[in-house]
Amino acid sequence: MRILSKFRTPKILFPSFQRPAVPSDTRRKSFSFNAVTLMKVIVFEDQPVWNLYPITIGRGAFAITCGSLRMIDVVLQIPSSAVGFLCRPYLEGISRYDYSEPGFFFGHQAVLAELENCAPNENILLLNARMVPSIQLLPFFRECIRKNEHCAFPWQTDLACACIPAERLLNVLKALPETLHPTAVLPIDFAALARDLPQCFEHPLELFDYPHDVVRSHVEIFNSNLEYRIQHTVPSQTGQNGTRWTNGKWTEIRDGVFVGQNVRFGDYLVTDTTNGPILVDEGASIGPFCYLKGPVYVGPHSKVIEHSALKDFVGLAHTTKVGGEVESSTIEPYTNKQHHGFLGHSYLGSWINLGAGTCNSDLKNTYGSVSMQYKSGRVATTMQFLGCIIGDYSKTAINTSIFTGKTIGSCSMVYGFVTRNVPCFVNYARSFGQCTELPVEVMISTQQRMFERRNVRQEKVHVDLLHQMFSLSTGERQMENEPLSL
Q1: What are the residues whose beta carbons fall under 8 Å from the beta carbon of 450, sequence distance 6 or more?
Q2: Dist CA 315 CA 279 (whole Å)
Q3: Where in the sequence of the chain do the CATH 2.160.10.10 domains occur?
Q4: Where are the CATH 3.90.550 domain residues in the chain?
Q5: Does residue 30 have a pLDDT over 60?
Q6: For the segment 151-167, what is each residue's pLDDT rounded down to a tens digit?
Q7: What is the mean pLDDT of residues 404-419?
Q8: CATH-assigned architecture of domain 213-476
Q9: 211 preceded by a cis bond (ω within 30 of 0)
Q10: Is the pLDDT reported for residue 6 higher than 80?
Q11: What integer is the mean pLDDT of 208-223?
Q12: What is the pLDDT of residue 478?
């Protein structure tokens, strides 16, 4: 391996944003603007969050990576005094563990306590957690805070954003019982909460309605999100115990190729930035004989294996291992796809491992648009290219083949041909006539061994989350005598 700066004299890009570098221990408070009124931001999950299954069974909607960013990353760029998250109760523990930054508070009791300290006439900015995390929304949010006027911004029949009196949300939260069902979305009609406010229907906000929207939006917002990263300080989580966040700065070592600190490139790297930039973040490494065709984002401490090809809109979160051919896909932290095989127009959750030779189809033989089968029914996506959606902790065996537009639930072991959707917590070998439930105890043991390989400590919150995911998905595991579904 050799250090990237040996390619040529690097050009250092200093952020043009009027915000200082962000030390990891003071990240939250450093994200304020001088001479700008600060406002509390409350991010809420509403009932349609379940339509994003299996992506959202193990994470809040604000933690979905799309276009290399999550909604929580976008929120951190908003001039706010504090950020609260009204998520499903069973996700509060894991959310606090993953996002333990100063000024963050999770759960309706924590949000209630924060709102009780608000002034009588104080407004808050209410944001839907399903919002597409486009960095181009920042001017819109800043303008809402600057105006500080009551207004609601609907998305279809749901609420996307509103500026409302803090007292209004406080009264609703006070009316809720102290203990809520752990897996239920908070029983709050957020659209009704802001229905009497002035309604603005022309706005840039967009919400995820189904999992395929994450794949679609990823391509639509990817270039603009990367351009913003280059010009501004947008720290990323590193997955490391020592330094939890990068400094968000870049060095340009080739035209359109930008790197963070301590990045390594192997020999005979080919890059193509005709259609977008290539960003390789702090501590990442690219093996020899690789081909990167932008736009591409390689997250902190990720590893791209030799002879890999990352092409067009590939976004890798931190601590991933990737090989083979990847196109127009998002891969969440700690996921491995380090052997040969094709992955295209897909979304992979965290802690997934794809066996050697695993491939997915992202185009029908008829070249027609792909339809997805969800719990709510069949949905026409109008997308010609659409691969697979795979939930957290799932694994595939060698030479697994995943048909176009299929979802694989969390914590499943998959073998052979995937011709229909796969539930959570199953050993799926349907092409061999076998499909059995995977006990949660097996996944807990597997999780512990996986964590040890990445120097991650298995905590009670991780085990509790697996139990809740298993309980939530009990009704899915009905696989006998099902017809073949292509």
Answers
A1: 334, 351
A2: 10
A3: 213-476
A4: 28-205
A5: no
A6: 999 999 999 999 999 99
A7: 96
A8: 3 Solenoid (2.160)
A9: no
A10: no
A11: 97
A12: 66
- In angstroms, the Cα distances linking 85 to 38, 176, 227 are 17, 16, 28
pLDDT of residue 10: 37
Q: Summarize pLDDT for 75-115 with one digit per residue, the tens.
A: 988 888 789 999 999 999 999 999 988 889 999 999 999 99
Pick from 59-63, 146-150, 261-265, 430-434: least confident:
430-434
Question: Over the stretch 293-319, which tens digit does the pLDDT of each residue have?
Answer: 999 999 999 999 999 999 999 999 999
What CA–CA distance (Å, rounded) separates 321 from 304?
6
Cα separation, 90 vs 111, whole angstroms: 16
Q: Which CATH architecture has domain 28-205?
A: Alpha-Beta Complex (3.90)
